[in-house]
Amino acid sequence: MLTAGKLFVKTFRIFDTRKDDNLTNVQLIAMMQTCEDLMDFPSDWVISISKL
After folding, report:
1. Spans of all domains in the chain
2. What pLDDT score was predicted for residue 21?
3. Is 37 helix (H, G, I), strand (E, B) or coil?
């Protein structure tokens, strides 16, 4: 069963490879795995994803 967090990881990895971001994919994955659902993510990340 996929959680919202796991789905968000995949989305953000795509974002990270398309834009010049300070975080690497490895760092993003580690940070995503500590979050239980989308409401735990920093709002600027969510905004960045929604602009894709």
Report:
1. 4-50
2. 55
3. coil
Angle at 39 between CA 43 and CA 44, to 5 degrees: 10
For the record, the structure tokens of 43 come out as 């709002």
Give CA separation, 38 vs 9, 12, 34, 43, in Å. 10, 12, 11, 10
Question: How many angstroms separate the Cα of 21 from the Cα of each of 3, 34, 36, 50?
Answer: 24, 20, 23, 16
Cβ 12 vs Cβ 26: under 8 Å? no
What predicted TM-score, i.e. pTM, was given to this entire model? 0.20
Residue 14, both tokens:
């795509």
Whether 48 and 15 have beta carbons less than 8 Å apart is answered as yes
Residue 3: per-residue pLDDT: 52
